[in-house]
Amino acid sequence: MSKIESYRLWYEHEKDCNQKMLAMLGSVPEAKRKDARFSQAVTLAAHLAACRENWLDRMIAGGKTQVDWWPKKVELGSLAGRYAKMEAKWTDYLAGLGEDGLDVDFEFPLSGGGGYRWSIEGQIVQLVGHAFYHRGQISLLVSQLGGETEDTDYLFWAFGRQPERWKKLG
């Protein structure tokens, strides 16, 4: 499997995790949704979407249409549509990205002036790890609020896709 095929596969896993994350947030009892931890969990989910949106914008358009990295007062109901739109854009982007497109640098400005240069592959890997980190935080908050959590480990997702490779030995 090539690197780009691996990154596409990882993104399929991430999309599955996003749906599980949204379901976890939706499982928090109504009585607990006024708790600051629920707001924090929803804000983290919105932040994950913003990261994917902003970095794709930086990678393909020079960062011209950035959204708020840490939006305030996010409504849970706004996230499903946002994720669907963002995931479609990323799926299309990765489908069109070839192996030779990974070792390419891109530049982007900062709002306060100046800018940076970074690599496409480096940012793809960063986003995967960043999502694991924040989904873990969200899962913990959901659990504390009495919601239902779901395992988003790659292992279980991969075995579900290839059950013939999951074998108990001994």
TrEMBL record:
Residues the record lists as binding a divalent metal cation: H47, H130, H134
Pfam families according to UniProt: DinB
Gene Ontology MF, one: metal ion binding
The entry's keywords: Metal-binding
Keyword Ribosomal protein among record annotations: no
InterPro entries associated with the record: DinB, DinB/YfiT-like
Family: Belongs to the DinB family.
Protein name: DinB family protein
Protein's organism: Fimbriimonas ginsengisoli
